[in-house]
């Protein structure tokens, strides 16, 4: 998956995603980096991994850290959902097309018989509609989001939200607090650090880091929260996970450091170190084929 994420980001050919429903986590990583991401009124985006004790991965520590202000931290820590209009405004999608036109758009694209970027854009724009944010959109709350989610730690972010929740017009904060407080405390701390580090890391560095985090989380290096989260939300569906530790205050910084310890070169994710190996669509043109010769 991480190998694929790298090539989705750096692929030489013109790419188009047609998104007409839920697009979350790894699925969203197949959409946001593309040259053209077409969304509809049925599209819903989210990165809810922290809520089950995982972290925002599949290149999203790279993507989220490059969104406006601290919107990335907000999306990563809360698992908040964005609609199509919000995806476009945030830079996570490029065009809005009504769902009833999507099939015709797909046919037109297939009939193009060219990957020329201008030609693809022209076809999409025949079907697309300009959209504006709804008045109640969370993206109209960016000043408050930046104020709260720019804090250094999860504890400080929660404290900032607590201080803002009673301000007139901030009714949206109460469900945000509820969502964060029922999420894995360890997952929240790992996720925040990963996105913050992503602000200074390259795509390759983010992917290597995310791969290591996922492996260490699945190995329960410091906690089995991810398995408890999956049990509570997907298997037993009692929505009552018993996190360990139970609060963010109990999560030790030295334990988070252990999860972030890099692998040795022989065990870390192998991705090209520079963009000279950008993929043309054929395996024989990749660094992987060259290294096996």
From TrEMBL:
CDD domains reported for this sequence: crotonase-like
EC number: 3.1.2.4
Key words, A-Z: Hydrolase
Record Pfam families: ECH_2
BP GO annotations: L-valine catabolic process
Enzyme class at the top of the EC tree: hydrolase
InterPro entries: ClpP/crotonase-like_dom_sf, ECH_dom, HIBYL-CoA-H
Reaction(s) catalysed (UniProt annotation): 3-hydroxy-2-methylpropanoyl-CoA + H2O = 3-hydroxy-2-methylpropanoate + CoA + H(+)
Annotated Enoyl-CoA hydratase/isomerase domain residues: 2-260
Pathway: Amino-acid degradation; L-valine degradation
Region (Disordered): 266-293
Biased composition (Basic and acidic residues): 275-287
GO molecular function terms noted in the UniProt entry: 3-hydroxyisobutyryl-CoA hydrolase activity
Function recorded in the entry: Hydrolyzes 3-hydroxyisobutyryl-CoA (HIBYL-CoA), a saline catabolite. Has high activity toward isobutyryl-CoA. Could be an isobutyryl-CoA dehydrogenase that functions in valine catabolism.
Family indicated by similarity: Belongs to the enoyl-CoA hydratase/isomerase family.
Protein name: 3-hydroxyisobutyryl-CoA hydrolase
Natural source organism: Aegilops tauschii subsp. strangulata
């Amino acid at each position: 998956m991480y190998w694929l994420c790298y090539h989705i980001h750096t692929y030489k050919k013109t790419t188009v995603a047609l998104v007409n429903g839920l697009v979350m986590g790894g699925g969203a990583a197949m959409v946001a980096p593309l040259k053209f991401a077409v969304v509809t009124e049925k599209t819903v985006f989210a990165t809810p991994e922290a809520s089950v004790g995982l972290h925002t991965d599949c290149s999203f520590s790279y993507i989220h850290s490059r969104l406006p202000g601290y919107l990335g931290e907000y999306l990563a820590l809360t698992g908040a959902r964005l609609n199509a209009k919000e995806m476009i405004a945030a830079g996570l999608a490029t065009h809005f097309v009504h769902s009833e036109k999507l099939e015709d758009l797909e046919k037109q694209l297939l009939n193009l018989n060219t990957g020329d970027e201008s030609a693809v854009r022209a076809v999409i724009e025949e079907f697309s509609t300009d959209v504006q944010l709804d008045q109640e959109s969370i993206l109209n709350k960016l000043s408050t989001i930046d104020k709260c989610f720019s804090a250094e730690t999860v504890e400080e972010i929660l404290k900032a939200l607590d201080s803002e929740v009673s301000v007139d017009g901030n009714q949206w904060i109460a469900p945000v607090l509820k969502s964060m407080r029922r999420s894995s405390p360890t997952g929240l701390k790992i996720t925040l650090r990963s996105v913050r580090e992503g602000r200074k890391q390259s795509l390759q560095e983010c992917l290597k880091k995310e791969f290591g985090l996922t492996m260490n989380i699945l190995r329960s290096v410091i906690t089995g929260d991810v398995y408890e989260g999956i049990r509570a939300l997907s298997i037993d569906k009692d929505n009552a996970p018993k996190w360990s530790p139970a609060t963010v205050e109990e999560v030790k910084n030295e334990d988070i450091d252990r999860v972030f310890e890099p692998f040795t070169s022989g065990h870390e994710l192998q991705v090209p170190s520079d963009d000279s190996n950008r993929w043309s669509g054929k395996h024989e043109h990749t660094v992987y084929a060259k290294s096996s010769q």
